[in-house]
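Case study: Beta-xylosidase.
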Amino acid sequence: MSCSYSLLCYTRKPTKREEANNADIALSMHLALRSRIDSAWTPLNENYGILFAAGVPTASVPSAARRACTAARRFKADRFDAPRPASAAVDVDAVMPDVDIVLKSLKDPYLFRLKDGRFAVAATRTARGGDPDGSEASAFLLVVSRDLTSYDQLGLVRLDTVAGVNRPGVEYDAQSGQYVIRWRDDEGHALYAVVDDIESAVARTVPVAGADRDAATVRHDAACYGIDDVVPGNVITISDVEAARLIERFGRVYNTGSSAPTCSLMASLRGPEAREAVRWFADTRADLTYSDGSKATRAVDWDTDALARLADDAAEGRLKPGESRTIRGRIRQTTYPVPFAVERADPSVFAWNFNGKPMFLFIATEDADGNCIDPREGRTHMPLRVADTIEGLSDAAGGREREIDLLVRGDLNSEGRAMTGCFWAPELHVIDGRLSILFMPCFDGEPTHADGTPNDRAGKPDMWTGRCHIMQLKKDEAGLDLDPREPANWTVPEPILGPEGDILNPVQLISLDMTVIGDSGNWYYAWQQVGSVWIARFDPSNPARLTSRPRQIVVPEFAWDNLIAEGPNAVIRNGRIFLIYSGSSVGIDYTTGLVTAPAGRNADLTDPASWTKLDYPLQKSGLYNGQWQLGTGHGMWSRDEDGNMIYVFHNAEYVNGRYGGRDAQVRRVHWSAEGMPLLDVETCEELDPAYAEVVMEIAVA
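Here is what the predicted structure looks like once written out:
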């Protein structure tokens, strides 16, 4: 193995939420590569964490309820956390975030190699935010990884001491065939232990071998790394192949070239047939290449005058075999307004065919000044926008002025109950051939809570009364869709119920953020309840009733997604289901997580084991096109006019320390060479202006 790159692991000193570097983010393992040209250190993943300590399910949670805790699947009962009773969620084989899971952070990460060449990390586990959690007296966290893009958290290695295990480090000694564990106790004494197999050490207590006379005093000069707020760990060497893998996943991807294919035209064509052949050239797309080896195609605005001249020459028989013509064009790159729609959260953009006419629809949660329960002094509504283009849906193009209120406060649902608030997270889907909207209304609160305590939302919209509902567009007698812009053309909203007609969430009552997944002939709803993502099957011919019991599949287990996993939305690509979800809590800390599952192989999507979770956010707060976007999340996959995949999401309004709600944004998605969706490719990275002009050669045969 050619070892030619230096790799630094580190944490950071926490600074501010506004810099996406609060303690939840700073106290995780970061990685940086050293340049072989100028020896400068380059942080990966925009100087954001890559390995986060997994939260620990409490001892009172039975194994059947822990199935969605996939990051902590190997953890044993933890004696370092105080006993606490389990939540009511365990009665339905689930866990409740921040109640049944104790969140953690880490410090002092130490990278090393296992005997077989894989990577491993030893680190001090802490309570969330960095305070001691008790484990540092006698144990350290052990994590293994094939390539440092995903991690298997094995748990704590316990040493036979209570004197402190500080700055743990591990090395494999090839001569003895053993792993040497080194640390310092709370008095600063250097100690060591030896094990034959470091991975199996999590299952037992490792005896202390004695004082480590070979220990060196390590002085970390943070300034020499040139990384903001760095708290350095150690440095290892990695191969070119390993470095390339890290750069591919955590580096910036940018456009490196463009080209257009050579097309052919038969000289024997004449008249309308020749003109039609030339017309097809206008749809020729350009090929784009990128720094990671990935590719994309884009529509091109070709020189219409040149195409017209070519069509005339072809129609009149003036083309000769063997000659060629050159058509110039510019790659089409729509730049959407920022913000796209002010105070519109949980946005959904949907490309739809209205009885043969293509159109785009936009629907979202009203979030005026951050009040999404009863905004604008109780004038709750469901705003719908319709346009011929995506850009036409934006505020800048007059989309806000053309909004239609499909629902308003006081409208009745199918049970005859007045919907008085929320209208949260409306999503557009086609279910059984019918345009449908999934959303959550809420109702006025009762005088008291279930435990008899007074309800401060009595007689006012109460989010905890919210339930997932569905409304569908009606059709006329000929089976054609009625106009979606007319509220009367939609069915009365109906609550979605369980297989026995029961509510979806027996633990907390509220259910929201519902979406649709179709795979292998099966239809699923995925939604949020109990602070996590749940899933169940349904029959599209009866979409208001589940056909299977709801199951919890995504639990927030890390400090970055901490309190909640919500807003699921899925797309299928190249045999994989990509389900994004939003983590943390509404505000400037919001992030976007990702779980994946096999598509087209009849996998049981109600089984948490079918899903693989990314250890770090897919998208997070950061600079985009030179401007900070904080609290990015609750997104939806869609497509633009040219068939390119786009990502529609919201970010936080945050000016001079004041949170003012959420604004909708639209970006195109780039797929990396390894098949990962990239949601933050900037405008000049997507298309370098130097490659915007392309030439198409037309060969006459």
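For the exam, be able to explain this: Residues 4-55+103-250 form one domain.
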